[in-house]
Amino acid sequence: MGYLLSKAIHPLQEMGIKVEVMLCDIRGVPIQTLIPEYDGLILSVNNSTPLEFCMFIRIPRDQAGTSQKIRVVSVHGKGKEVTQKKKDLLAGSLYSVFTKKIRNRETTSDAWKSSALMTTKHEGNNIRLVVVENENFQMWEVAIVTRATENDKANLFLTVQMLYQATMYNLNGEIFMPIDQYEGYIRWQGEKGLKEFLEKSGIVDMDCLLKVCEQFPRSPNGQTGSPDDMLQIVDWFCLASGQGFSENGHFIHWKEIRGQERFACVKNGEIVMADPQRNENGQIRLTNIIPLSPAR
């Protein structure tokens, strides 16, 4: 079974979070609510059609009785700067409403017959949610993703994915997450990065975090990759960008995923069969990717 939006979005719904997408007219005014299909498909158009969407994220204003703290943020730039989005407070509303305008833009691709495609590009195609509950951290990504087809069509999908999950610790007064839970956290520790955001936003109670005096080494998990290069285990795959890596460090792109589903993707921990190919830059990419097993 491929990607199911109802399963992916269920944890957010349990938090009381609502997600809505509307199609905008040429002036950028929302005019039509788009109802996603089972796999998140919201629209199918000619791949040269310019589009603009408005995404609404509604967070319950009254979070009394729960220890969860939710912040809606944008992430941008190579430095992964984290910026908290401003909310629209509506009089009498039970929700704080956050909006994001998403446009498709021209991109070139050698993979299709068309010389130029209109796609929703990462990082501008998404909005992220930081959820903190005591020492537990999660980052979710809600996105509008383009999958071009070979018949000059473009399918647009609403996707929801929990990108990162980890336990936070107090390391000499700073927030630390173990590398075996959140390997990329170290890349988010620059100025205006995630670490600074968490420490300055007030959503983390440092007194609730277990104090440690040194960083944990990577926990051995026994997974060093299959001895058969054609069998790979997906380490991480981002729905919004359509890119990821295997546990062997080989690059994964959605265009190389083979299957019958409209929304091509793989899941973290999934075993796949693929042909590793080294490109001119020395990077190994997986081609002809065939999912073989459910994620572990």
Characteristic terms for this protein:
296 residues, mainly beta, OB fold (Dihydrolipoamide Acetyltransferase, E2P), five-stranded antiparallel β-sheet, 21 strands
Tell me what the structure shows.
- With 296 residues, the chain is mainly β.
- It folds into 2 domains: 5-212, no CATH class; 231-291, Nucleic acid-binding proteins (OB fold (Dihydrolipoamide Acetyltransferase, E2P)), CATH 2.40.50.140.
- Helices cover 6% and strands 45% of the residues.
- It has 2 helices and 21 strands.
- It has helices at 5-14, 194-201, and strands at residues 18-24, 30-34, 41-46, 52-60, 68-76, 81-84, 88-89, 95-103, 105-107, 117-119, 126-133, 136-148, 153-167, 169-171, 174-176, 211-212, 231-238, 243-246, 251-253, 271-278, 284-291.
- A 6-stranded antiparallel β-sheet has the order 3-13-12-11-5-6.
- It is globular, with a radius of gyration of 20 Å.
- Mean pLDDT is 86; it is low at 218-228.
Break the fold down into its secondary structure elements and pairings.
Elements: H1 5-14, E1 18-24, E2 30-34, E3 41-46, E4 52-60, E5 68-76, E6 81-84, E7 88-89, E8 95-103, E9 105-107, E10 117-119, E11 126-133, E12 136-148, E13 153-167, E14 169-171, E15 174-176, H2 194-201, E16 211-212, E17 231-238, E18 243-246, E19 251-253, E20 271-278, E21 284-291
Parallel strand pairs: 14-16
Antiparallel strand pairs: 1-2, 1-4, 3-13, 4-8, 5-6, 5-11, 7-8, 9-10, 11-12, 12-13, 14-15, 17-18, 17-20, 18-19, 20-21
Overall, the morphology is: globular
Taking Cα atoms only, what radius of gyration do you get, to the nearest Å?
20 Å
Q: Between the first and last Cα atoms, what is the distance in angstroms?
A: 14 Å
Give the number of DSSP strands. Answer: 21
Number of helices: 2
- In this structure, how is the largest beta sheet organized? 6 strands, antiparallel
Structural class: mainly beta
Q: Could you say how many structural domains there are in total?
A: 2
Following the backbone from N to C, one meets helices and strands in this order, namely HEEEEEEEEEEEEEEEHEEEEEE
Report the β-strand fraction as a percent range: 35-45%
Unreliable stretches covering 5 or more consecutive residues: 218-228
Strand order of the largest sheet: 3-13-12-11-5-6
Mean pLDDT value: 86
Give the oligomeric state. single chain
